[in-house]
């Protein structure tokens, strides 16, 4: 299935009925493989829908193949959205469905005069990092150690759930340029942190080595953020993904 074909076949809509919301919970279980106690429950999806959050589904025909869940928050007196979870079924990954969901999120947020969306992501997942930073135009200024504790998800490989916090300023020049395919020039880069491309394999097969790499990455991020640097770019090489740090205005 080509990316262009996905664009014409996949539809998006807000999830409203209990049946649809239950389908998102089941899809969450399929994608992450959490134990029951760690699953986000149906009632959270219902509450998010009722209190000004977003619960958006991606459908191939009548079959849900992806979803996005966001809840409202308050920062510096302004409403923003915390995008807590987005997942896409394995056969539909790398085909543009995640981008469709994020762009729909952005459009709906701006229509409500919401200018900021935040979410967390695993810094070892370099494909996600490239998507968040280069394709969407998010910046990163915060790093949280073991945010969710050690989980039962096979995707986490038993490692601590260290997370970067992505800040997506929806109507900024940076975001507008990235969404138009105009990469921001890598100017003023003062630090780089590399994550090897084979980290996912190491996480599954050599967790000890993966943990050592994770510790090195977390130490570097925390040190750079202490200097008030921010991740403003991401490069890919044959062997690694590379986070690029530069100065960024503090809020």
Description of the structure:
The chain is of the alpha+beta class and 251 residues long. It has one domain (3-186): Gcn5-related N-acetyltransferase (GNAT) (Aminopeptidase, 3-Layer(aba) Sandwich). It is 36% helix and 31% strand. The strands form two sheets. It has a seven-stranded mixed sheet with strand order 1-2-3-4-5-7-6, with helices on both faces. The model is unreliable at 1-5 (pLDDT under 50).
List the helices and strands and how they pair.
Blueprint: H1 3-9, E1 10-14, H2 18-32, H3 42-50, E2 54-60, E3 63-75, E4 78-88, H4 97-111, E5 116-121, H5 126-135, E6 139-144, E7 163-169, H6 173-179, E8 191-196, H7 199-205, H8 207-226, E9 229-236, E10 240-247
Parallel strand pairs: 4-5
Antiparallel strand pairs: 1-2, 2-3, 3-4, 5-7, 6-7, 8-10, 9-10
Helix pairs in contact: 7-8
- The strands making up the biggest β-sheet line up spatially as 1-2-3-4-5-7-6
| CATH class wording | Alpha Beta
Query: For the report, how would you describe the main beta sheet?
Result: 7 strands, mixed
Strand content: 25-35%
Corresponding CATH architecture: 3-Layer(aba) Sandwich
Count up the domains: 1
**Cα gyration radius (Å):** 18 Å
Provide the residue-averaged pLDDT.
90
What is the H-and-E element order?
Answer: HEHHEEEHEHEEHEHHEE
What is the fold named in CATH at topology level?
A: Aminopeptidase
Helix content: 25-40%
Question: End-to-end span in angstroms?
Answer: 43 Å
Oligomer: single chain
The count of helical stretches stands at 8
Question: SS-based structural class?
Answer: alpha+beta
CATH superfamily: Gcn5-related N-acetyltransferase (GNAT)
Beta strand count: 10
Globular, elongated, flat, extended or rod-shaped: what is the shape? Answer: globular
Low-confidence stretches: 1-5
């Amino acid at each position: 299935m080509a990316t262009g074909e996905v664009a014409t076949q996949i539809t998006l809509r807000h999830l409203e009925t209990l049946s649809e919301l239950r389908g998102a919970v089941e899809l969450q279980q399929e994608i992450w493989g959490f134990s029951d106690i760690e699953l986000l429950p149906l009632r959270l999806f219902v509450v998010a829908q009722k209190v000004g959050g977003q619960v958006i589904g991606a459908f191939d025909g009548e079959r849900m193949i992806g979803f996005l869940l966001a809840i409202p928050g308050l920062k510096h007196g302004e409403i923003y959205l915390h995008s807590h979870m987005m997942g896409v079924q394995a056969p539909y990954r790398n085909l543009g469905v995640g981008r469709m969901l994020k762009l729909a999120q952005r459009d709906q947020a701006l229509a409500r005069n919401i200018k900021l969306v935040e979410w967390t992501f695993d810094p070892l997942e370099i494909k996600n990092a490239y998507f968040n930073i280069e394709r969407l135009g998010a910046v990163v200024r915060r790093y949280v150690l073991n945010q969710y504790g050690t989980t039962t998800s096979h995707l986490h490989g038993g490692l601590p759930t260290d997370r970067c916090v992505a800040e997506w300023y929806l109507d900024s020049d940076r975001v507008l340029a990235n969404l138009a395919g105009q990469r921001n020039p890598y100017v003023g880069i003062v630090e780089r942190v590399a994550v090897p491309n084979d980290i996912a394999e190491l996480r599954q097969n050599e967790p000890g080595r993966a943990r050592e790499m994770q510790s090195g990455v977390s130490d570097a991020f925390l040190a750079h953020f202490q200097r008030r640097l921010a991740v403003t770019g991401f490069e890919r090489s044959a062997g690694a993904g590379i986070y690029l740090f530069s100065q960024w205005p503090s809020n």
